[in-house]
């Protein structure tokens, strides 16, 4: 499904690129040229995204034990870099437009062509974002946001060209180009920033919060402590590892069963492809007794008082045990 959506984006981008360049050659408008230049970025980015989605879908192998999902971060970063490049080219074209203005022609026809591409881009962009969130695909989300932002900028372009037609102030053409260049540079920066964050395994607060809510909702008496929690994304796959403090007297089979129960809750509630590594820590009586709610404990030294509150801050800390309450 993801490959079909990216292929749709690729085909649509090629068709709209020809439409936008046709509009530019008819009008000589620098503002419309900025839209046409961005369409080249759409084509190149969609082509690279198509390959990255294919590669990300491949199963894990000997050389890639965590799968191929991180290629999607490269794809998003590549697309962001192209967008930044387009923004810089547009700035240059706008400056040339100020210094060496060209007569504008057939703006009404160009307006119709841009309006058509705006509607198509916006629709495809929304579809890609919808399914990108469904499949947890950064490539689909990035490509969808790019197309939708392209549609929004085209809509602003339509308004700007309409103002030029109404006021006959041709210098506004370059001003509009500067505005679009700024929007592109901003969009490209955010894509590159998110790409670098993913490649560097930066903490994703949304993912941590999702796991936290699952654990709080399904907390078991035997789960005395969870800490050193880490969530990493490899495309649509999640990798989670943490330390789970359990009663020290559990035998190997009982420990395994508790760890497996922990894993099953995460997989069932996220609905994602999740790989979980859990390190089991033994409790340390009497330090943990007041924080342990397990009523059937045969070796309790102190009465239960209160379980520590699980928050993002204390779950991600590499603190082996909670202090005595």
UniProtKB/TrEMBL annotation:
Localization: Membrane
Chief location category: membrane
GO molecular function (one): zinc efflux antiporter activity
Pfam family, one: Cation_efflux
Gene3D superfamilies listed in its UniProt record: Cation efflux protein transmembrane domain, Cation efflux protein, cytoplasmic domain
Cellular-component GO terms for this entry: plasma membrane
Species of origin: Raineya orbicola
PANTHER family given in the database record: MITOCHONDRIAL METAL TRANSPORTER 1-RELATED
Membrane topology (UniProt): Multi-pass membrane protein
Protein name (record): CDF: cation diffusion facilitator family transporter
Highest taxon in the source lineage: Bacteria
Domain Cation efflux protein transmembrane: 6-200
A GO biological-process term: intracellular zinc ion homeostasis
Family per similarity comment: Belongs to the cation diffusion facilitator (CDF) transporter (TC 2.A.4) family.
Keywords: Membrane, Transmembrane, Transmembrane helix, Transport
Transmembrane segments: 6-27, 39-58, 78-99, 111-132, 152-185
Cation efflux protein cytoplasmic domain sequence ranges: 206-283
């Amino acid at each position: 499904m993801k490959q079909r959506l990216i292929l749709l984006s690729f085909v649509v981008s090629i068709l709209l690129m020809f439409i936008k360049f046709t509009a530019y050659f008819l009008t000589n408008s620098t503002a419309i040229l900025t839209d046409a230049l961005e369409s080249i970025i759409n084509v190149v980015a969609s082509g690279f995204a198509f390959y990255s989605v294919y590669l990300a879908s491949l199963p894990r192998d000997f050389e890639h034990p965590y799968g191929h999902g991180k290629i999607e971060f490269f794809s998003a970063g590549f697309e962001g870099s192209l967008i930044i490049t387009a923004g810089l080219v547009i700035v240059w074209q706008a400056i040339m437009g100020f210094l060496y203005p060209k007569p504008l022609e057939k703006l009404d026809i160009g307006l119709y062509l841009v309006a058509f591409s705006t509607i198509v881009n916006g629709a495809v962009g929304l579809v890609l974002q919808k399914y990108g969130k469904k499949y947890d695909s950064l490539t689909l989300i990035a490509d969808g946001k790019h197309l939708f932002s392209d549609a929004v900028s085209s809509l602003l372009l339509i308004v700007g060209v309409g103002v030029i037609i109404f006021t006959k102030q041709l210098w506004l053409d370059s001003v509009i180009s500067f505005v679009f260049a700024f929007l592109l540079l901003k969009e490209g920066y955010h894509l590159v920033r998110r790409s670098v964050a993913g490649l560097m395994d930066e903490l994703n607060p949304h993912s941590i919060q999702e796991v936290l809510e699952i654990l709080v909702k399904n907390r078991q008496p035997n789960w005395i402590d969870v800490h050193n929690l880490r969530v990493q994304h490899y495309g649509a796959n999640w990798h989670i590892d943490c330390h789970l403090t359990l009663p020290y007297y559990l035998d190997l089979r009982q420990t395994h069963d508790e760890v497996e129960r922990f894993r099953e809750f995460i997989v069932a509630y996220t609905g994602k492809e999740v790989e979980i590594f859990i390190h089991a820590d033994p409790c340390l009586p009497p330090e943990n007794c007041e924080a342990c709610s397990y009523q059937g404990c045969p070796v309790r030294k102190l009465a239960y008082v209160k379980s520590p509150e699980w928050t993002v801050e204390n779950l991600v800390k590499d603190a082996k045990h909670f202090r005595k309450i």
